[in-house]
Amino acid sequence: MTVLPVPTRGVSLATAQRSLGDPAIGYPLWPPLTAGCPRTSTGAIAYPLEVAFDYGRGVGDLFDDPPAPGFERWAPLLPPLLPGGGLGEGATPLVPTPRLADWAGFDGELFVKDEGRNPTWSHKDRLNRVAVGTAALGGAPGIVVASSGNHGAAAAAYAARAGLPCIVVTSASAPPAIRSFLLAYGAAVLGVPTEARWSVLRDVVERLGFMPVSNRTVTHTGHPFGPEGYKTIAYELFLQLGRRIPAAVCVPTGYGELLFGVWKGFRELRTLGVADRTPLLVACEPATRAPLGRAIATGQPALIVEPTPTDAYAVAVSVGGYRGVVALRESGGWAEALDDEATREAQGALAREGLWQELSGAIGVAGLRAATAAGRRFDEPVVCIATSSGFKDIGVGEATIPTVAPEWGAIAATLCREYGIGG
Questions:
Q1: Which residue from 254, 322, 325, 251 is spatially nearest to 283, judged by alpha carbons?
Q2: Are 162 and 110 within one domain?
Q3: Helix crossing, 257-271 with 322-331: angle to 10°?
Q4: Same-domain status, 98 and 114
Q5: pLDDT-derived band at 229, boundaries 50, 70, 90
Q6: Is the Cα dihedral 285, 288, 292, 294 positive or negative?
Q7: Do 232 and 270 belong together in one domain?
Q8: Of 68, 65, 83, nearest to 12 (Cα)?
Q9: 212, 238, 273 - which closes a domain
Q10: How large is the average pLDDT for residues 297-308?
Q11: Distance CA 92, CA 300 (A)
Q12: In this structure, are 116 and 248 located in the same domain?
């Protein structure tokens, strides 16, 4: 394979914004078009934009070294980064999990990419390293995010790092750990009814000029630069697997930003001549909503669905986005819809491997098990992305443990009764 010429490390090759609704339509790189493509979007569908790069300038030896924390290494393939704006994000562990493979019914190499090891314990750090830095570089007076979970925590941390005010529009259902993150980072936290979060976010954008780093359109577009941060997961997987491309990647999916970013990273590896193929992507989403799977099944670019309850709150979205459709269509992948029971079983199986994930973070493993049970066959290796620490889950801190008298008879009885040890 031929690797293209070498640019100066640290210099972004980003050139423009490009519409996903019509890739022939381009816009200047600045300012980020956070309301979607002005020419292809309608009142019913908002088409996101992606960042275009001058790949012809090449990346030289960018993929020769092992992954290291921080995004500066990947600067040529990212939008311009705010100097000093990082927190050591990325370079998360890739954990081999043979017992988990047996549990999932997969006869091959299975790895878990543990995104809970990022600075605020979730994959959202990758998006916010890029999006919040963009706000600072563009002179925005602050950022605003509508989130009751990981996105708000990460946005608040990276805003603090950049010296920007951060407004988080959240709801009373936010887990206690998330509320603690937000307050610790000094964010201005507004608790509003869940259905009012988006209108409040739009008011902040229009009245204060803050840059939104979450969605403000009828179907999901989000920040056009943010998903570029997720591409680094693909770069890391390629290097961590010994310069191999996985056969499939199972991705927890809400709005589809992570799914699209991972896909674009693998697509770039092929475009740059670093790799000669791309993986299948499997989008794993809650069965009670599943806007991406339903959009694919009905041939639509994005759907809005009823906000039916699910405990997998971090991927519980009712507004779909076109990015996910693009990622599945181009990768040849599909969507798996998982109920909470299946996802909770996957969460337990991960914990028995020593990996504690919030419920939403385990849904990729549940998706692999469902796919193999349905007769899907994968080559190897397969990677499941696990998106966030179990500390972020709803109800964490409410667990109880048995109280036992410190005599062996009572101890032995408790071990047997509660934990199945001894007998």
A1: 251
A2: no
A3: 40
A4: yes
A5: very high
A6: positive
A7: yes
A8: 83
A9: 212
A10: 96
A11: 35
A12: yes
Query: Both 232 and 368 in a single domain?
Result: yes
Please state at what angle helix 257-271 crosses helix 231-240, rounded to 10 degrees: 60
61 within 8 A of 75, measured Cβ to Cβ: no
Helix (H) or strand (E) holding 144: strand 143-146
Contacts of 417 (CB under 8 A, 6+ apart): none
Whether the bond between 176 and the residue before it is cis, its omega within 30 degrees of 0, is no
Domain extent, residue 199, equals 124-212
Specify whether 290 is located in the same domain as 371.
Answer: yes
Q: Within a domain: residue 20?
A: no
Residue 233 and residue 145 share a domain: no
Let me know: does 317 contact 254? Beta carbons within 8 Å: yes
Asked if 323 and 256 count as a contact pair (C-beta separation under 8 A), the reply is yes
Give 345-362 pLDDT, tens digit per residue.
Answer: 999 999 999 999 999 999
Do 124 and 140 touch, CB atoms closer than 8 A? no
pLDDT for 9? 57
- pTM, entire model: 0.95
Same-domain status, 241 and 185: no
Residue 8: is its pLDDT beyond 60? Answer: no
Residue among 285, 244, 283 at smallest CA distance from 262: 283
Query: Burial level of 30, CB count in 10 A (0-12/13-18/19+)?
Result: middle
Looking at the structure of the chain, the number of domains it has is 2
For residue 2, pLDDT over 70 is answered with no
Domain of residue 166, CATH code: 3.40.50.1100
Structure token digits, residue 279: 């993986």
Tens of pLDDT, residues 137-151: 999 999 999 998 899
